[in-house]
Specification:
Succ_semiAld_DH, Aldehyde Dehydrogenase, Chain A, domain 2, alpha/beta, binds nicotinamide-adenine-dinucleotide, seven-stranded mixed sheet
């Protein structure tokens, strides 16, 4: 049984118009603990009726929410932020129970998630319109910023808190109302945020949360004329389905999709820094992050030294339940994830890669996979083209800058890229040549509240966080005044 200081944060109902409801059909979806496979709760399988109810509640709430001053909206967000931090321990425990990540990482995510609420509470006061110089003296032209309206927020399981706050906070700050559909694997983290939003005084209907299977909820959200925007984080496959489904009603879209991040170690790199960067980028959240290094490209001259140092560190990583002290790699989210990771490793080994980190000490339980460093990776292997989404670091070899850039850019994805060099000219040249939305030089961590986050190519549309994040939830109205 999950131990919490405040048990009322663990809710297994949908939030619609301020009411905590079940599905009219009575159907539910089981949520399990990835470390044990045990069912921790059943949540309502919301369908078209509950989704229509949530959209109607968001539409009703929009009328008054958009008219509140930005100071008032910001103050309510500030209160929500404070409550999230006050309850960080319980929120982290709920997350680890349904997502599996080590408790320390879950706590970090709660703080990271809260930081978006704070940031956008402050940004609410900086939604500026403008004045436009008119072509004749009898005219004035102003630009007014207005909320987009009701937004559908669809989020993944890998960051069950922060992927929600990174969207909901700017939406609310801008004056929008939302219908949130969290991942079916991690609904309780979303529902706990709903409890705290209610406690903070955010009015009924401003945030609605639907649990259940995606197809019915997704279709009702897409078909609705009232929903004016879809903000989605998840796979490129589903993102492109949502894009097609948004076409008939011409919705606005923000899409944070899959990645296939290159991590380039040049021959002049500080190898200790590069190893630290690889550990941070590749092994956080068990490698289940969209920005995690998928392909490590290492210059021929430093390949062996880097491989040995990284392998030694990876061999020492502790695998286990997210609740156990000292765990660094928790269980993977589900069986499909484990199968994909194992298939990628098997394919690489069959095509000539060498496993530098064999281990025989994995804990019992079917969702644990070994953190692995693969020497001798080549571009014909599956893990060169597909997101592995697990703790596997394949090391590719290169011998010139042009070759490294060509391999790095040789993917339909363009989310994050990393490179390590001590040479200033190379730093600028490579940063400019990489076709990615985010580039890290001499660092493996690039996710922060203050900077825009997002991708190019098939990694998505739009930016979250930073100054840009709130724009995704605003329309610009041109106001023309004549007869002066
Ligand atoms: P997913 O695409 O399977 O699911 C994401 C969400 O979409 C879930 O809530 C799911 O229920 C929902 N969904 C699925 N089918 C739907 C449909 N037909 N209609 C409406 N909703 C639907 O992704 P996932 O497995 O949860 O997450 C992993 C993926 O997310 C990876 O590809 C990862 O790279 C990506 N991701 C991207 C970012 C980013 O910021 N770019 C961040 C985190 C994860």
């Amino acid at each position: 049984m999950l131990e919490l200081q405040d048990k009322s944060l663990f809710v297994s109902r949908c939030l619609v118009g301020g009411e905590w409801i079940g599905a009219a059909s009575g159907e539910t979806v089981a949520v399990d603990n990835p470390a044990t496979g045990e069912i921790i709760a059943n949540v309502p399988a919301a369908g078209a009726d509950e989704t229509s109810g949530a959209i109607a509640a968001a539409e009703a709430a929009l009328k008054t929410w958009r008219k509140r001053s930005s100071t008032e909206r910001g103050a309510l967000l500030e209160r929500w932020h404070d409550l999230v931090l006050e309850n960080a321990d319980d929120l982290a425990r709920i997350m680890t129970a349904e997502q599996g990540k080590p408790l320390a990482e879950a706590r970090d995510e709660i703080r990271y998630g809260a930081s978006f609420i704070k940031w956008f509470a402050e940004e609410a006061r900086r939604i500026y319109g403008g004045t436009v110089p008119a072509p004749t003296t009898d005219r004035r032209v102003l630009t007014l910023k207005e909320p987009v309206g009701v937004c559908a927020i669809i989020t993944p399981w890998n960051f069950p808190n922060a992927m929600i706050t990174r969207k909901v906070a700017p939406a609310l700050a801008a004056g929008c109302t939302v219908v949130v559909k969290p991942s079916e694997f991690t609904p309780h983290s979303a529902l706990a945020l709903g409890v705290l939003a209610e406690r903070a005084g955010i009015p009924a209907g401003v945030i609605n949360i639907l649990t259940g299977l995606p197809a019915a909820i997704g279709k009702t959200l897409l078909d609705s004329d009232i929903v004016r925007k879809v903000s989605f984080t998840g796979s490129t496959r589903v993102g492109s389905l949502l894009m097609a489904g948004s076409a008939p009603t011409v919705k606005r879209l923000s899409l944070e999709l899959g990645g296939n991040a290159p991590f380039i170690v040049f021959d002049d790199a500080d190898l200790d820094l590069a190893v630290e960067g690889a550990l941070a980028s590749k092994f956080r959240n068990g490698g289940q992050t969209c920005v995690c290094a998928n392909r490590l490209l290492v210059h021929d001259r430093v390949y062996d030294a880097f491989a040995d140092r990284l392998a030694a560190r990876v061999q020492a990583l502790r695998v286990g339940s997210g609740f156990a002290d000292g765990t660094q790699i928790g269980p993977m989210i589900n069986d499909a994830a484990v199968d994909k990771i194992n298939a990628h490793v098997a394919d690489a080994l069959a095509k000539g890669a060498e496993n530098l980190t064999p281990r025989a000490d994995l804990p019992a339980g079917h969702r644990y996979v070994a953190p692995t460093v693969l020497r001798g990776a080549t571009t014909d292997m599956r893990l060169a083209d597909e997101e592995t989404f697990g703790p596997v670091a394949p090391l590719f070899r290169f011998s010139s800058d042009d070759e490294a850039i060509a391999i790095a850019n040789g993917t339909p994805f363009g989310l994050a890229a990393y490179f390590f060099t001590e040479n200033l000219q190379r730093a600028f040249r490579v940063a400019e040549d990489l076709e990615f939305g985010m580039v890290g030089l001499n660092t493996g961590s690039i996710s922060m509240t203050v900077a825009p986050f997002g991708g190019v190519k098939q990694s998505g549309l739009g930016r979250e966080g930073g100054r840009e994040g709130i724009e995704e939830y605003l329309e610009t109205k041109a106001f023309h005044i004549g007869g002066l």
